[in-house]
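tool_call: predict_structure(chain=1)
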Amino acid sequence: MRPGDPVLAKRAGLYREGRPAPALAPHLLCRWVHVIPQGPALPVAVVPDGCVDLLWVGDRLVVAGPDLTAAHPVLPPGDPVLAVRFRPGAALRWLGLPMSEITGRQVDLQEFRPWARELANRIGEARTTAERMARLEAGLARIAPEIGLPAPEMALAFRWLGQGAEEAGLAALRDRLGISERSLRRRCHEAFGYGPKTLDRIQRFQRFLRLVAAGEEPGLSALAAAAGYSDQAHLTRETRRLSGLTPAAIVGQLTAGTENRAAA
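tool_result:
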């Protein structure tokens, strides 16, 4: 890694994901905990993934909106950050506003929902990280019956663009959903914070990250082709725009050691 390069967030400190509580499974993809060790702060990069998270950080419940480029949050050393990640389109139901209004932002949940203050107080009274997570999930589970499920069309759009096959393009997606280009753009802005073309770019970048982590391709040219880029130069341009890192830097971080690897 070059001096000054940010560390991919999941490679900084200890990051663990787990399944959400059963009552929340229709709404959430996962829950996670991230702990940065004590010591000098590291420049951390949270790269775009098309998702929205609800975080407990600094004694606050904060909504992390979808990102267009890498975010560089200040993660407090030694103080665990715990969170849940919404399923595609679910945050629209929970927050009651289009995700385009919070793209690239972190906003206190109390700005959207009156029940956030009581939930934050209950979490803040907990003594351990496990107890805090349990209280977060229990509080959300009590509210979940009042929240509509995410639109299946948007879940399909997210999966469709994530496949990366040539036949799974935007035109085919519109045909599958039976909606116009304008309607697809509007609904993607509501559910994901940006239009389908941007979501497609982000999904392609995420495929590159998964391929690197799996160690399935031997070089950058092969990785670019497998992820759906036109060539290695296209991969380099997009990777820099979305993460601020070169493809080689990302490969180096994701393949160096296992001490910080996310545990399912």
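agent: Strands lie at 7-8, 14-18, 28-35, 44-45, 53-57, 60-64, 81-86, 106-108. Proceeding to next step.
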